[in-house]
Amino acid sequence: MSNPLLVEVTRGGIVESGHAGAIAVCDAEGGVVFSMGDIGRPIFPRSAIKGFQALPLIESGAADRFHLTDAELSLACASHSGEPEHATTAAGMLAKAGQTEACLECGAHWPMGEKAARRLFSSGAKPTALHNNCSGKHSGFVCAAIEMGHDPLGYIQPDHPTMREVSASIEAMTGFDLAKAARGVDGCSIPTYAIPLKNIATGFAKFASGEGLSKSRAEAVRRLRQAVAASPFHVAGTGRFDTLVMEDLRERAFIKTGAEGVYCAALPEKGLGIAIKIDDGATRASETAMSAMLTRFLELDASASKNVAAHLDYRMSNWNGIEVGRLRPAMGLAG
After folding, report:
1. Helix-helix angle 283-297:302-310, to 10 degrees
2. Using an 8 Å Cβ cutoff, are 201 and 26 in contact?
3. Which of 49, 80, 142, 285 is 20 to 30 A away from residue 242, measured at CA?
4. CATH code, 113
5. What is the pTM of this model?
6. Domain membership of residue 273 as a residue range
7. How many structural domains are present in the chain?
8. Residue 117 phi/psi, 5° resolution?
9. For 58-82, b where at least 16 C-beta lie within 10 A, e where not — what string?
10. Which of 5, 27, 30 is closest to 297 using CA atoms?
């Protein structure tokens, strides 16, 4: 099945390029409310499901034992830009558990945020694992491992007790048997599993509503949603789509990007979950597609929709600041 065109790129008044993909919007029982493309094909959700991966941090009791703040819980769900506040927050999480960055197994890279990378380079310092965009998630894994009585060493391996808990959380939220799933290695070295888009959207509907979850897990998803809404900067960073939209919408939407054109969202007031996959992996297209879905399923006034609206008709400019084209939803997506 060929996926339909979801996003168009215009120049000179005509369509120059297009991005195909698939979208699933589901309720907590797996009912499909809206779809385009092949939503049964397994895809790697990558970092979009960090909220699912952070559930053992709450359910193990680690978040309470180490008195993790909203900013720290938000960072546990983050693909952050590596700004100083992000690195400092990750270090603080580890310190509360009696650990340092030396225990992180995500690897080091320059901050994803250009300004943060330039600032670090200008200081003469080199990046550490704290600057890795996944350092908050990994700090959460370390905290959970210690609370559960496990040696954190090797926590990125599929058979480590902590990673087994993380995988079990993903399986329970999506309702998909990971033993039957294709398994790869994510950019931060943990396992990543191929899961149908419909199942991912259903998992986010559960994350939105708590329906079908135990009391403790429903409380855990509520706590993570509230933490990210209270500190959206820590889930992404300055000028990032996730942060900008959640600064506008707060608890109305939990949205999360993933590599290779994946975007997911939980809409608590509607009890719906959204999962998007752009075939060519373009983030610019997944942001536009997510904006279209948020506009379709939420009633947004002007103040709440400014950053969403900006990506529904995104102005592209050249190095002289001259407009050269637009990024917009294709007809079937625009609705």
Report:
1. 150
2. yes
3. 142
4. 3.40.710
5. 0.96
6. 5-334
7. 1
8. -65, -45
9. bbbebbeebebbbbbbbbbbbbbbb
10. 27
The identity of residue 225, as a single letter, is R
- Count of residues making up the chain: 335
Quote the Cα angle for 168-172-173, to 5°.
120
Tell me how far the alpha carbon of residue 133 is from its chain's centroid: 11
pLDDT tens-place string over residues 133-181: 999 999 999 999 999 999 999 999 999 999 999 999 999 999 999 999 9
